[in-house]
Amino acid sequence: MKSLIIEDEETTRIMLEEYISDYGDCDHACDGKAGYEMFKKEFENGNPYNLICMDIMMPTMDGQETLRKIRLFEKEKGIRSGDRVKVIMTTALEDQKNVTEAFLRGEAASYIVKPINKKKLIREIRKLGMIE
Q: How far is Cα 20 from Cα 86, in angstroms, rounded to an integer?
């Protein structure tokens, strides 16, 4: 499994990378714009990500906008819905509107409310069929 963590908070980024790296290669970006560029570059190099864990609230480009751009890129490349990168949104927000917006559009596969513990994250990744 090849993963990308898009998270502006360094402590959370390091923690997520530690949790996920046991299951394969893991890269990270500190904001949505950088994460989107990494996603595109790896796709175009023939080595796409299988999983993205992405914060909703970030500077430069937030998680909602980043996810919309990722899905538009996949659509333009002819990627079918079932073959798209799996995205787990992470949030510290209590606001249901921000938490559920990506799911109502069918763009995110899951979400986790912070603080994130390893057990909770791995359970979500298993639900997505990414690991056994």
A: 14
Q: Is the pTM of this model over 0.90?
A: yes
Residues 6 or more apart from 33 whose CB is under 8 A from it?
A: 60, 61, 66
8 Å CB contact between 20 and 5: yes
Domains of the chain: 3-127 (3.40.50.2300)
98 touches 21 (CB < 8 A): no
User: How do residues 35-62 score in pLDDT, each as one tens digit?
Assistant: 999 999 999 999 999 999 999 889 889 9
Q: What is the DSSP letter of 60?
A: S
Q: Give which of 111, 113, 63 is closest to 93, Cα–Cα.
A: 113
> 3-class DSSP state for residue 118?
helix
Q: CA geometry: angle at 19 spanning 61 and 25, to 5°?
A: 75
